[in-house]
Amino acid sequence: MENNPFSLKNKRILITGASSGIGRAIAVECSKMGACVIITGRNEERLKATILEIGDDKVQYIIANFAKDDDVLALCNKIEDLDGLVNCAGLTKVLPFNFAKPSDFKEVMDVNFFAPAELTRLLLKAGKIRKKGSIVFISSISGVLCSAPAASIYSSSKGAVNGLVKGMALDLAPKGIRVNCVNPGMITTDIFSDGKIMQEQLKEDMKRYPLKRYGKPEEVAYSVIYLLSDASSWVTGSNLIIDGGYTLL
Amino acid sequence: MDLLTFTTNFADQFEETEISAFTPNTNYKELEEWSSLIALSIIAMIDEEYDVSIKGDDIRSAETIEDLFTIVKNRK
What we know:
Chain A is α/β, with parallel strands linked by helices. Chain A contains seven helices and seven strands.
């Protein structure tokens, strides 16, 4: 397709958290749109599985654990100039607020907030994000528009990301770099694989979505493609809500 | 760990239900106040007090407070 404003052809894009769930789908779909993707995550086996799904063994992968400060710096040092950055690495901790200690908040904030903020800062400082680049953060509807039982920790981290994006968007506007957020509702991934939330509960929760199902990882990826592409060249500091209508009710 | 303290810790996660309603034989999922949030509080309490991680499925498979106590005790 010629003259496709949604194309990512010739764009170099770094995707964090690309070894599973939404991050993996973003890597796969961006690649299909012509991007040269660089993927990072904690687990080499799973990163290789992402590469297999992309179907191009030339894809660069870098192992990094965002719970470690050194890994964030090391990752930045291995990266060359980028047109796009997708901060997708994230985790959740399901705990009723009465049990949520500072150490629990820290565990989640480190990965969901501090690591992506610092990675982005380091990349910018090293001049590795090109003018007219696009930075996308995966936030959530949780913490921005709503929350859920025992989700105060997760909501706090995603609310923080939301504020960060708006401040960054202003500060980076003079460089022509855009910063945006996507805010998904519940997406079918293994984020609740620890089993604290039961399958029955998830099925019941699904019924509360006007579109009667959870989202698919690739449905988040498509909105990320839009925000990375030239189609969104006048969009910055925004929230793109992808929630099957959940927050309408 | 003893069953009586466990039962008290279990009861502490409820707001409305009378304390007398909680015995080792209480079928907790039949309590009117039972909810998914209380289930998560029980999981968090067990983690905090007994350093044992249980899952939603354990809450489901146990019927009485004593059943759950036994699950936790066996994982200590």
